[in-house]
Amino acid sequence: MKLLTLMKLLSPSLAMGLLSAALLMAASTKATAQEYTFTTLAGPPELGPGDADGSGSLARFRGPIGVAVDTAGNVYVADYLNDAIRKVTPGGVVTTLAGLACSSGSADGTGSAARFYHPYGVAVDSSGNVYVADTFNYTIRKVTPSGVVTTLAGLAGSAGSDDGTGSAARFNYPQGVAVDSAGNVYVADTDNHTIRKVTPGGVVTTLAGLPGNSGSDDGTGSAARFYYPYSVAVNSAGNMYVADAYNHTIRKVTPGGVVTTLAGLAGSSGSVGGTGSAARFYYPYGVAVDSAGNVYVADTGNCTIRKVTPGGMVVTLAGLAGSSGSANGTGSGARFCNPYGVALDSAGNVYVADLGNDTIRKVTSANVVTTLAGAAGGSGSANGTGSAARFNSPSAAAVDGAGNVYVADMCNDTIRKVTPGGVVTTLAGLAGSDGSADGTGSAARFYYPQGVAVDSAGNVYVADSGNHTLRKVTPGGVGTTLAGLAGSLGSADGTGSAARFYYPYGMAVDSAGNVYVGDLFNHTIRKVTPGGVVTTLAGLPGNSGSADGTGSDARFDYPRGVAVDSAGNVYVADYGNHTIRKVTPGGVVTTLAGLAGSGGNSDGTGSDARFFYPYGVAVDSAGNVYVADARNCAIRKVTPGGVVTTLAGAAGYIPMGQGVQLYGGSVHGTGSAARFSDPCGVAVDSAGNLYVADPGNDNIRLGRPACPDAPTIDLVTGPVGQARQLDTSPQSALAWQWRLVRTPAGSALASWTANVRNPTFTPDVADLFIFRLTATTAAGAIAIRTLAFTALPPPPVLQAVQLTQGTLDLTWSTEAGAGYQLQYNSDLNSTNWTSLGGPETATGPTLSATDYATNGPARFYRAVRLPAGP
Questions:
Q1: Is residue 714 a contact partner of residue 724, using CB atoms and an 8 Å limit?
Q2: How many Cα atoms sit within 13 Å of 768 on the Cβ side?
Q3: 220: left (phi over 0), alpha (psi -120 to 50) or beta
Q4: What is the pLDDT of residue 116?
Q5: Which of 464, 613, 628, 740 has minimal CB crowding within 10 Å?
């Protein structure tokens, strides 16, 4: 709140004083003991922060789920993981209408002052008001065209199924909303298995289904049953169409609550077209309906967009069932990745929230698919340098003494090599051609290789998981089978092809050439000599568990990554147990960090630390273990004493239903500013640099000890129009690059950049700005960190005070559309201010008020800018 004060004196001379309050806070970023900066060594470049506003492919989303479109063609997006509601113009310009990225909450307010908690569904009425299923708050919210957020029904944090008015009503993870021409909102109340109605006054009733009772029965009102309905659409006649996701069906609900099944067969998933129950869907999550009664479906599990006629005939408009991707194209030539929400404009264009690609797609009436906003990563098999190269789910990495990185490129069925300069070549295998053949270079064949290790001579060892074998590839690309027999799984020890494995995963090699393997489905750690003799070092085949012990007395639960130190100790990423284990050369197994059965992301010592499905491990010469903590999307470090810290990344895994998951991102950064997507493999070189196989982003990341420079600003909040001073500390770098990565809607500063250490910045709108600093030292160490600044509305400023015939006239500056209240107080030490007249809304640059001069005590005046409201 900004104050304007004036002391009124009953004398010919008036003494005036201006009091303005500002929050004075020094920005500081304290570097942790050891921070790493991660950038992309090879593969698609970073997509950037997932909340960036901008045009077309410059914009970023983070889990877009719900979409709605208004009569002007603007698309509104429930940006699920950003906890925000975004707006996309017909030209693809993206702004944030309400909420603040990655800041969950339930507060009503305007723009970035409002908070949501994983909003799922959106709908828009003819006046441009947006209705939101604020799923994890259990509420239905309303957002005006100017971004003012209020809660229409439900109570944040209180799940239930009660009908009622406003905050007396209860919802249970509501996920879909639709609005009719009268302003009634219809809700797919997912975990209640019901369809609800909310009037413009916030009165909530249950139209169909019975809370807590799932099923597939047609019927009227509470006699009908749904099974996790995810979205709802309504046509001009008041008929509702429901994506009944777990029944794999599309349902119809009349205004009277009569429920029928329009298409699909409950309990039978598939992708075939047809009429009514002959058609099949696979977890349909999104629906929209046109004026002719055609229903458009985001068939999420099939990665397709479907159409259902009023008669129940189902056809596929775009995408190919079972083939995910991000390609634009026509009909079956296009690709989607877990499309969730659909919306329809008056021209028949379908807009799709393409969740897995973090994009908004457009499908024309001719079934031509383009990307309207956002950018998806790119998989492939191309060799090349840096960002020109492509991988397809690289699952593991190993590094040799010269800094070359070897990659198990799982879905390409190849072994790749990346030089320190980022040049990528294929060492062995042929992309797209799986098999088990030994041979040289492209003549060799692999089948879903998921582990690699490299010895001092440059030989690469491969866990050829799909073949249940261990392979060896020489520096010249000659591939041979070291142990196991292709196509024959088992657990037998033995020599060469007499041994058996059951989906071998992680690999490590010691200085003597012994290879150690995490034999995933056998729940064991195996050892293979240079001559191919296989023994079981620890664990008992076919017996999972978490027990420490020696040899076959120990138990593992799907051990994945392994690493070996110079003393022959083996470190294991025990995936199913969420722990890091240690195996001595004698087979003695202990738990180094984590607690079996307890997934999480806490740092700490030993069993106080938590991991969430760790995939890969590496160990340095000091005995520090580095962990690719896959579902936490983070890289962790474990000291020899079991102390766990997070080096980079941030926990971000959220399950979204059958086979659909949201996690991570693709961002360069230092420490927690970096983002990964399901990192599976990690390697460390002699200089302490880390290499990460990041399959969710189809790239290889390089982590180096960070430059200490961090961004600073003179004030973290300040008024619009007032210049701010940016700088760095401790100023060890020689080169700096600043740019805005979050620019508020209405700002003209989206392209602001600076290449000096201490630029100035003048905000032009009241909202949140986020800067990104890239600082580089003479030695090449990099820091990539962000800094936030909140621009406040301009304070009211006294412009004129005039005493005329006993009347005091006061005029102060305003901002059009904002509300103000003039108040007075006779004692500045008192908090009891009295309003002078009613509040006023500014329609121009100034407002005025009057007070009558009397012989009473002196008065102080203040003009208060009022909070925004509906």
A1: yes
A2: 22
A3: beta
A4: 96
A5: 613
